[in-house]
């Protein structure tokens, strides 16, 4: 199977899932996750029409972006240490994994230094798993209100990763939790934020995520196959 074939299949699955719940397929963006993916495969994915590229590692992304023309947005989707915030601001069009105020402050400092406003998503721990990053559901509204006062950042929505299940349908309640949190935040009408984006759903469960309101799905293995280490 080629990368083009894989992307065409995923696009079809996204469309079917969207239509099942009365959504427009064009409202869902397809991100190709490039962690440990070689440059030729990334270029194939761009040519095949993915909407966004996402990477988990600053150093790896710097190398990739430096070697190829940046023709579509790149988003950071990994755990971001505060000492790497400078590079995230320089490299990426969005940081999807802001989960603490200290990180927001550091991103803001470098955004101001570069004369930029950085779009971000707030990463939420929807299952309370200790092995995954994210602000808790209970603490997310207060964090968002606080970050909303920072001038160099623009909150665009929420991001989350549910537990892994053999049956993707078991992830549905977790996706629903994120959507319901988003809806509550919209009702609060917090000044200076948008709550349009829900980044949720990966290779195993993206159809369920689309049914539950995802606006960005983050797909790696289903596009590129099993990962090989980048040379």
Total of helices: 9
* End-to-end gap: 22 Å
For this structure, what is the CATH homologous superfamily? Answer: Alanine racemase
Percentage of residues in DSSP E strands: 15-25%
Class by SSE composition = alpha/beta
| Mean pLDDT across all amino acids | 94
Gyration radius from CA atoms, angstroms: 17 Å
Tell me which CATH architecture applies here: Alpha-Beta Barrel
| Oligomer kind | single chain
What kind of sheet is the major sheet?
Answer: 9 strands, parallel
Main CATH class: Alpha Beta
Q: How much helix is in the residues?
A: 40-55%
- The count of strands amounts to 9
Low-confidence stretches: none
Domain module tally? 1
SSE order, one letter for each helix or strand: HEHEHEHEHEEHEHEHEH
CATH topology: TIM Barrel
């Amino acid at each position: 199977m080629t990368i083009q074939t894989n992307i065409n299949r995923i696009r079809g699955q996204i469309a079917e899932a969207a239509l099942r719940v009365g959504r427009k397929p064009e409202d869902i963006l397809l991100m190709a996750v490039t962690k440990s993916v070689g440059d030729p495969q990334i270029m194939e994915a761009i040519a095949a029409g993915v909407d966004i590229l996402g990477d988990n590692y600053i150093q790896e992304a710097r190398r990739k972006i430096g070697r190829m023309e940046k023709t579509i947005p790149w988003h950071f989707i990994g755990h971001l240490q505060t000492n790497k915030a400078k590079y995230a601001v320089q490299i990426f069009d969005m940081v999807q994994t802001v989960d603490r105020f200290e990180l927001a402050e550091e991103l803001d400092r470098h955004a101001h230094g570069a004369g930029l406003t950085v779009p971000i998503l707030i990463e939420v721990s929807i299952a309370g798993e200790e092995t995954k990053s994210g602000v808790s559901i209970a603490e997310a509204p207060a964090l968002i209100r606080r970050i909303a006062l920072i001038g160099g950042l623009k909150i665009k929505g929420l991001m989350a990763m549910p537990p892994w299940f053999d049956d993707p349908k078991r992830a549905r309640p977790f996706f629903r939790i994120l959507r319901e949190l988003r809806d509550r935040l919209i009702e609060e009408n917090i000044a200076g934020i948008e709550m349009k984006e829900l980044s949720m759903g990966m290779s195993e469960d993206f159809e369920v995520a689309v049914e539950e309101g995802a606006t960005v799905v983050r797909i790696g293995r289903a596009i590129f196959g099993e990962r090989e280490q980048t040379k």
